[in-house]
Design a protein that fits this description.
- By secondary structure, this protein is mainly β.
- The protein is built from one helix and 36 strands.
- The strands form eleven sheets. The chain has a four-stranded antiparallel β-sheet with strand order 6-5-8-9. Strands 10-15-14-12 form a four-stranded mixed β-sheet, with no helix packed on it. The protein has a four-stranded mixed β-sheet with strand order 17-22-21-19, with no helix packed on it.
- The longest helix has 21 residues.
Length: about 450
């Protein structure tokens, strides 16, 4: 394959050889065709009516009237040597008519762009370095080759990044620091960095030696959405609650709903998060806590201690307070009370469990209460009645096993207890009443297989 340089070289020698032949044999005539125009004469750029340089006369035999050299020379100039920019090359054709050129920029890593056939060419070099740039010029007078060194200088960097919109930040730092560079910002400041504190257009020019680069950026600093949402709240188990948020254009709850208002049915304490987006595309979120108070659940058990005394145990859950109804007209609010029934019967006991969300009731019937009122075995006598400070108890046929004396209020509460481990079959026991208020009480004497009840009055 014949390249451009070879074609131009062959053309050059054909032209020169023709000229030389006609110069040696001037009596011969020669003709050639260029662009469908026929010339007659010696073929060396003749001018049929040209003037001789020696005298004002016409040229002879079609020869030129001046000396036309066979060989010629050409050069070029270049400008803009900063890396990353185009370097421009301008051919110098003074004194010759160049009809074609071939540039070689000495930068093979640029591929097909490493050469050009444009008279005035440009090239973007791949690195900052020294390159040998060669120009081959072709004309009717021949071909000429010129090589010059071109030094490509390193360029500074001035990359501010793309236009940006930021949310929820007060400032943005722009930094174009280069070693040994000079800086000029839009407001004439000369630092290598610039702090953006408000939205706007920002521009910088960085200079390093002969090379200058510049960049600009539009910055938008947007506040986060101002969200107004439901306050944290407390509901009762089984209730619903409406939650809301405002301050944006779109909303997304962690329930999957995308409206500003939602209704929720939590069964226990739950956190609800909403993501709010405003018209600037800025996003913020908020969380609403819904506390769920459970309903109370009443639960109890009972244990009959004797044929008239019953222990009750509270096993309620989620209750702030309770109320026992023993079914005999008496009640209690203690956790695990003991109740004395004063007459026989099947009593329906109710336990009420309370909290802020409501009340739950458990009703049950312990084993029937059967009270033995036979006081002949043993036989007791209580005096004085009414009593003041001391109560005397005469006990006959008491046996010799331990006895227990209890003083009980009319509502079944045990107010005072005393145990007698050693005693005679017949004896008198004295009970102090100093800690009791005036009123009516029951005295209960209990043994292994019996219990005796007597009523007395305390009058202080």
């Amino acid at each position: 394959m014949i390249n451009t340089l070879q074609i131009h070289t062959i053309s050059f020698f054909i032209r020169r050889w023709t000229c030389l032949i006609l110069f040696v044999f001037p009596l011969l005539s020669f003709s050639r065709n260029e662009g469908n125009i026929w010339y007659f004469g010696f073929g060396c750029n003749f001018n049929l009516f040209g003037f001789s340089l020696a005298s004002p006369s016409l040229s002879k035999f079609g020869l030129p009237n001046f000396y036309n050299p066979i060989f010629f020379s050409s050069g070029f100039t270049s400008e803009n040597f900063c890396f990353g920019d185009s370097t421009f090359f301008t051919i110098d054709t003074t004194g010759s008519q160049v009809d074609s050129v071939l540039w070689s920029f000495g930068d093979p890593s640029t591929g097909v762009n490493d050469s050009s056939t444009s008279l005035n060419a440009f090239h973007i070099f791949s690195v900052a370095d020294t390159f040998d740039v060669t120009l081959i010029s072709f004309s009717n007078n021949g071909a000429d080759t010129t090589t010059q060194q071109v030094i490509i200088l390193p360029s500074p960097s001035a990359d501010l990044g793309p236009d940006t919109s930021l949310c929820g930040v007060d400032s943005l730092l722009l930094d174009v620091t280069n070693n040994n560079a000079a800086y000029l910002w839009h407001d004439s400041t000369t630092n290598p960095f610039y702090t953006v504190s408000q939205s706007g257009f920002y521009y910088v020019q960085v200079t390093l030696g002969e090379c200058k680069v510049s960049d600009s950026i539009n910055v938008n600093l947007n506040p986060l959405p101002i969200i107004t949402s439901s306050n944290d709240t407390t509901i009762c188990e089984g209730d619903t609650v409406f939650l809301f948020a405002s301050g944006g254009t779109t909303y997304l709850w962690n329930t999957g709903e995308d409206t500003s208002h939602i209704e929720v049915f939590p069964t226990d304490t739950t956190f609800y998060e909403v993501i709010v987006t405003d018209s600037s595309g800025c996003i913020d979120k908020d969380t609403v806590t819904v506390n769920v108070n459970p309903l109370p659940v009443a639960d109890a058990q009972s244990n009959i201690v004797s044929n008239f005394e019953v222990n009750f145990f509270n096993y309620s859950t989620n209750a702030d307070s309770i109320l026992w109804d023993f079914g005999d007209g008496n009640s209690d609010t203690t956790e695990n009370p003991t109740h004395i029934y004063l007459f026989s019967g099947a009593f329906e006991v109710s336990l009420y469990a309370f909290n802020d969300c409501g009340v739950d009731t458990l009703t049950f019937t312990p084993l029937p209460i059967s009270i033995d009122k036979d006081i002949t075995n043993p036989e007791i006598s209580v005096y004085p009645n009414p009593a003041r400070k001391i109560l005397h108890i005469d006990i006959i046929e008491a046996g010799y096993k331990p006895l227990e004396i209890e003083i009980v209020s009319l509502d079944g509460k045990i107010l005072q207890q005393e145990r007698i481990n050693q005693h005679q079959n017949e004896f008198t026991q004295m009970i102090s009443l100093e800690n009791l208020a005036s009123g009516m009480y029951f005295l209960i004497l209990s043994g292994e297989n019996f219990s005796v009840i007597e009523k007395f009055i305390l009058q202080k």
